[in-house]
Amino acid sequence: MTLKVGVIGTGMIGRDHIRRLTEVVSGAEVVAVSDANEVVAKEVAAGLPAATVHATGEELIADDRVEAVVVCSWGPTHEQYVVASIEAGKPVFCEKPLASTTEACQRIMAAELAGGRRLVQVGFMRRYDAPYRALKQAIDSGVVGAPLIYYSGHRNPSVPEHYTRDMAIVDTAVHDFDVTRWLLGEELTAIRVLAGKPNRHGGELLDPLLMVLESSSGVLVTVETSVNIRYGYDIRGEVVGEEGTAALADTGQVVLRRANSAGVAVPEDWRERFVLAYDVEFQEWINEVTGGRTLTGPSSWDGYAAQVVCDAGVRSLHEGDRVEIALGTRPALYS
Ligand code: NAD
Ligand code: ISE
Question: Which of 75-84, 117-126, 243-252 has the lowest mean pLDDT?
């Protein structure tokens, strides 16, 4: 069976996911696209065999040919499309963040819970990345003992013009919050955000940021965001356990030794670093949707939990204090 997909938002990641759905993974066909910028949507559709261009995302969701929706528009627009997809009874893969406020995430969960079945998956692709899966396996196997500290480093060489102060938390560190919850199998309960000496390439941004979080069993988590670090896109992760440590391996294939140093190639951006994770993420989603199976990827609850941590982080950044995080009870649909 081929899953007929409609893609809303044909910007950078929308186009990359369309390439993935058409040329890399099996079992899917892109039959409709839509973007607030119709010129861009038409350009993308011209490269596809049979894709209709819709003037609005809502029109695309209502299209009878569209069996599942992929949302790749800007974060603040996610809620309207995810809720409309749920109301139409169509599975929806939504790029992160699930929505840009805690309340919007709660409205999405309320709509999904009213239907009684999981229809939403959030694009937290790190869960599909081979080094992260190996790290989780190491933690779960107990080889390093009980985790005590987790360090998550998130470095971008530069960020676009529209990137604001809070985006280091809500757009960038949101990945670290999700992957930490997943690696530790625990919720995060408090956050404190610290800004120190700024990177001169960062302009008005507070960059880098160091966040100190606590998990429900007391694991200390540090998240570093450095979004103007120039040398490349670099993702770090290390768990310190009672009996040892486990760290993500560098992704380069070739270790270069020159000028008294040894090193591996550093990727340019997230597309290169996580290319295989995005592929696996989509293949598993397509297999589950076409097989009529319960979704197992990041849920609305995961999107909500990451957003609650983001909101607390932004408060901590603005007020300079430690902020407690409270999620409430997890509905059975997401257990
Ligand atoms: P982008 O600016 O390149 O593309 C976004 C597109 O959405 C633009 O073409 C814009 O015209 C369109 N758009 C804006 N409002 C719209 C609306 N109301 N309806 C339809 N289209 C609309 O941005 P991007 O980098 O592709 O990011 C898009 C989303 O993907 C964001 O939520 C971002 O956080 C996420 N993202 C995730 C990853 C990841 O690693 N998982 C990486 C990059 C981006
Ligand atoms: C971008 O939106 C992503 O999701 C990337 O994975 C992340 O590294 C980057 O900081 C974000 O801006």
Answer: 243-252
